Amino acid sequence: MRINVGPQHPSTHGVLRLVVDLDGEQIVSLKPQVGYLHSGFEKTMENRTYQQGVTYSNRMDYLHGFAHDLAYMLAVEKLMDARVPVRAQRIRVILTELNRIASHLVFFGTTMLDMGALTPYFYCMREREGLMDIFELTSGVRMNYGSFRVGGLYRDVPEQFEPMVRTWLEAFPKHMDEYFNLFMGNSIVLARTQGVGVVTREMAIDHALTGPSARASGLALDFRKAAPYSGYEDYVFDVPTHEDGDIYARILVRYEEMIESCRIVSQALDMLEPGPFRDPDRRISLPPRWELEESMEAVIFHFKLVTEGFHPPRGEVYVPTESARGELGYYLISDGGSMPYRVKVRAPSLANLQSLEPSSIGGLFADMVINIASFDPVLGDVDK
Amino acid sequence: MTHHEPNGATRARVLESLTELGGVVSEFKDMISVTLSKSKVIEGLKVCRAEGLEMLTDVMGIDYLTYPGHRGKRFAVVYNVHDVHGGNRLFIRVELDDGEKVPTATGVWRGADFLERETFDMLGIEFDGHPNLRKILTPEDLDGHPHRKDFPLGETPTLFNDGRFIDPAAFRSGLRGDDPGLTDWKGGARDGVTSTQGELPGEGGTQG
Q1: A283·B204 Cβ contact <8 A
Q2: Of A13, A327, B14, B40, which sits most exposed with the smallest number of CB within 10 A?
Q3: Hey, is the C-beta of A36 within 8 angstroms of any chain B C-beta?
Q4: How close A297 comes to chain B (CA, Å)?
Q5: At a CB cut-off of 8 Å and minimum separation 6, what does A370 contact?
Q6: Which member of B2, B54, B201 has the closest CB to residue A225?
Q7: Nearest-Cα residue of chain B relative to residue A356
Q8: Per the CB < 8 Å rule, is A282 touching B115?
Q9: For B9-128, which CATH class?
Q10: Which residues in chain B have their CB less than 8 angstroms from residue A341's CB?
């Protein structure tokens, strides 16, 4: 029997459509059909200046927007040889890690929801609300942040930022432990997740699986460790891995990652020192406001940077980063103009979706729904 | 907790094998690309996988149609491969003319499936032997491949209230690398102007 799942169905976590062939209740084949959210972000970014690109980057992965902003900024900064001040790097790491926790909280809540447990979703959303307030304080919005600039941040964080993050950090691990013990010890959860949807290490390598899902299959691949960027080499943290490769392991890895992210954030807060938050290089940064009143030169730079943007030298760059879903990188090609010649996003969700079929085949149809959730696809990230 | 060889060791070993296959090595800002001929690319990818760069992360296509000063073939396909620890990375390039096919990498990595389909969908580059080469992101009824540089953007000229039109394509052409624009300004301070930073790196995007 052939069943069509989605695209309009909450359990597919977005507009994902699956064509599933069944033998009784067992899955014989499963073909993901994607593209319902394709918005041509890459092509649009090729027709905007480098700075304007940050408006689009975070809209792809709407749950971990700061990771996309950071990945895009790192690529542009590599092209421009920009020197990002330490304070800006630390704040970027804090925001990206907090956003990673927020993304994993949505994962945790919705995965439980797919198993029929409604309560954890509300608990997770309540914790996430505190993070949303922090993001709103720093960027002005709860989603689609776009507050990173080439060479730093658009402005320094307000005074309340540090106490707010610390208060949240103090409460969160205790709450999360409570939720985790409450639900992950549940015998129904264990029965439905352990040994189900297994991805072996070889399968993960063969199907280009990265991120927490790959680490649940014993692949210790984390670009924060392998190719540290934005000052990740300064922080002490572990990369949690599990060998089982089942749904339970994928949930467990993300739970442990939230704890590691908390460690990174508290270290970054301790190391946060006053200083500039943006590269003062006039090729990429706007002149300070006071200078516009005194210097015609500054007014001209301001005008030219805003209307035309800067011109990086010719070349092709790629900076791999670790988003909440896996390897994320922007392959940028500059032709010497003020707009990128080619933008190619290596978005983790599209490649990760390929592991869905081999891990679902032979399993039950009802388990497939949790299996989709366990790979944590964001369809904006899949379709670009 | 990751115990692996230092960054670059595996990459250097694979590079040696790829040069034997006739690969041309180029480097830009610590990114190493190897250009292989179309007939050797699958062999090259097999070498990568066998000798330690075990993961294929991405397949992407580039259309060099309007790239200023580009000689050589119109398209390039870039395979992004790295090792399981993430510290070694190589970009394998193949150059193609319009209509030329490249053999599929799905025999080396099953995960090349969606990645090659995306490249086909966006640029119309065909992968010979791909088991299921169909569109993946764009709608079935869309003609053409959006990431080709001759694919129109679909925007409309804007009418301003004094009867003046701004034609987006003409407006943007002033921002391209090959066009000096009105002032030939490419960023940075003019000579003799002091900056608050003190010194500025000399290299800008001069002479497009």
Answers
A1: yes
A2: B40
A3: no
A4: 8
A5: A111, A114, A115, A192, A193, A196, A197, A247
A6: B2
A7: B111
A8: no
A9: alpha beta
A10: 67, 177
Nearest of A36, A77, A88, A85 to residue A54 by alpha carbon: A77
Q: Which residues of A touch B175 (CB under 8 A)?
A: 49, 308-309, 337-339
Q: Name the token pair of A159.
A: 């005074």
What residue type is assigned to position A262 of the chain?
C
Ordered by start, the domain boundaries in chain A are 39-383
Rounded Cα–Cα distance for residues A205 and B2 (Å): 17
All residues of chain A having their beta carbon less than 8 Å from the beta carbon of residue B58 are 329, 331, 344, 346, 351
A208 closest CB neighbour out of B55, B67, B188: B55
Written as tens digits, the pLDDT of chain A (384 aa) is: 888 887 877 777 778 888 999 998 899 999 888 888 888 899 889 888 898 889 999 888 888 989 999 999 999 999 988 889 999 999 999 999 999 999 999 998 898 888 888 888 899 999 999 999 999 999 888 888 888 989 889 888 999 999 999 999 999 988 888 888 888 888 888 888 888 889 999 999 999 899 999 999 998 889 998 888 998 999 999 999 999 889 999 999 999 999 999 999 999 999 998 988 888 888 888 888 888 888 888 888 888 888 888 888 888 999 999 999 999 999 999 988 888 999 999 989 999 999 988 999 888 888 888 898 898 888 888 888
CATH tag, A39-383: 1.10.645.10
Are A205 and B55 within 8 A, CB to CB?
Answer: yes
Parallel, antiparallel or unpaired: strands A26-33 and A17-23 = antiparallel
Taking only Cα atoms into account, the Rg of chain A, rounded to an integer number of angstroms, comes to: 21
Helix, strand, coil proportions of chain A in percent (round to 5)? 55, 10, 35
